[in-house]
Amino acid sequence: MKINKFKVSMTAAMASLLLLTTACSSGNSNSGSGAAEGKQEVTITFRSSGSEDTLTKYFESGLIEKFETDNPDIKIKIAPVLASEGDYTSKIVLQMKSPDTAPDIVAEDTSIIKSDAAAGYLEPLDTQVAGWSDWKDKFIENLKAGVTGEDGKIYGIPATSDTRGIWYNKELLAQAGLPVPFKPASWDEVLEAARTIKDKLPGVTPLNMIVGKSSGEGVTMQTLEMLLYGTNDTLYNDETKKWVVSSPGLLDSFKFIDQLFNVDKTGPTMQVALNGQAGSIAFQQLFPQGKLAMAVDGSWAGSTWFENGAAPIENVADKMGFAPFPTQNGQEPGAITMSGGWAWSIPAQSQNKEAAWKFMEFLMNQENATGRVMAEGNLSPRNDSVDVAGYTDRTYTAEAQALLEVAKFRPANDEYATVSAQIQSIVESIASGKLTPEDAVKQLKDNVVRALGEDKVEVK
Amino acid sequence: MKRKSRGAFLFLTPSVLLLLIFFIVPIILTICFAFTNMALTGSAARNLQFIGFQNFTNMFQDPDFRISVWRTLVFLIFSAVIGQVVLGFILALLMKEKNVTFRRIIGIIVIAGWVTPEIVVAFCMVAFFSDNGSLNQIIGWFGISPVSWLFSFPMVSVIIANIWHGTAFSMMVYQSALDEIPKDIEEAATIDGASNFKILSYITIPMVKGSIVTNMMLVTLQTLGVFTLIYTMTGGGPGTATQTLPVFMYNQAFVNYQFGYGTAISLVLLVIGIVASLFYMKSMKVKV
Predict the structure, then answer these.
(1) Using a CB-CB distance cutoff of 8 angstroms, which residues of chain B are in contact with residue A446?
(2) What is the distance in angstroms between the Cα of B51 and the nearest Cα belonging to chain A?
(3) What tens digit of pLDDT does each residue of B6-40 get?
């Protein structure tokens, strides 16, 4: 009887253990799907904005079918990630950490590519690009810096490029008595125009700038850096390899934000500004409804109003304009823009690197690369896109392309993400009146020192 | 006897193993990671290093951390201790010995907040407090101009949201505790001429003290972990106005990609939870 009891308990224990191990191991059996059909499956991951996502639509418009017909041994699977800009980065990083979940091609914001390369998540593509004739002559040279890691290796192929400026509603500006086309020569003229609109057109938001930290990198690049790089200072000193966390230019940039939101009160309401969808609200709702006069945003944003866009406006070119953002006091070169963009990379843990590269080459050939930026309203990283019919004829493309001449790029450093996160939170605090510009400079310095160490920063 | 205990141990093995794998190991790992420079991206992600107490030193020097601790305490005291515990008790008291239909109607209204998932509560509250939301429409009927609640009174808004979401739990705990009090004790006090207030403070409250303390502990621990509600309603902002420790931790780990630092913050949150629980448990032992 006693022995029986022992047996029973042993059996129970073994059975439970078995159950446990089966439960634990059952999650691992889904890799390599598609292998049954004898095909290599290449998964491509990018950020999607939802059901109306233009990139998803572009992939599904016959592009994949065409590739699969030419390459019958490869199957392409698109795996868009629906997330905010900040969440997208953490999601793909977590995916790339394991060979079970790593996609084969991934869209990387050029602001994070160096960081991810330093972390070892991305595969260097030097051998591949060496054997690809397009890379040497057809890609705009200064965009290559954005996809080069700290170690000098190439970690991605630039896929889109962009510039930033002031989008404005021509009718509203004319009603307020401002000159159209609008071409402000200094920061003061921008602020003055906003004040005029506030006086003349009650109910209209004069100037939208992205300041809510939930909008992520847009706060740093579209707002702070657009201002800062128009002063005589920069965020990073390339010679000393240090972050400039306190400078007259930085203080003036903070003062501009404070002036706009707190002194003049010509910015959007905080409820709009702090919303993670502030950009979409501005372009899909406020602009088309005639409730917004100006907005500092990217060159792609105007495509929202095109016929196939999210909020079409008839005769858009007559109603909306795109002006260069001026330097602080109109100093040379008069206007300023930040340029960035997205790139395609292959994760180090990808299981199908060869097939992935094959698809990437196809994706980035002249026809397809240009087709994509045309669909999205972006600028192309390829200099031969101008030869593709319709590329430069697109509304606003000529203006946006012209700005590339004065374009500045974000600091090429893997600490950028950390500094940018600090800036996002501080800019939000200034705009919402929680921090004065002076305190903001001090806080930025303290925070960056704490995050990176005293030896990584300098004061001008 | 010996063999019997061996058998018992064998039966326990699976549950011990489960506990070990899903509970104890993660806690130990969390503690270990808090002493490293673990990061989601950047060179630190490749070179995981033991950095001693660096994360904790940084944390205690970080003004944002101190602000977050303060915000957590404010949120905890107003939304858990005062809001849910007191309001739950009052509701339970008001409903005591009322007729069944009344109790059911009120019960359903209050419990609706509790059964609604946190994320849904958050969206409902955004709809309620937003510029064109219900609250502004209601005050509009009285000629009051709209207020940007989530911007002007962010902490008040999230506190109200959490009270709305959580009060039903306290109410139910107290309802069952109050139902347990024998009627004749209170009746005897009434006959002796005690006022309602005296009955409440000398008889009712002392008799449900145990439930009060248990409930306070549960509500405190639950509120310490509230993240979805705040993150969805305000994102911790404007600025750092509603940045409680869980939101701060999330920002450090998933926005700044500093996992080691985020883990260290989570340990502090764990310690606060433990201290609060010990405090409540001790007070329960002494007084009940």
Answers:
(1) 63
(2) 14
(3) 888 888 889 999 999 998 998 899 899 999 999 88
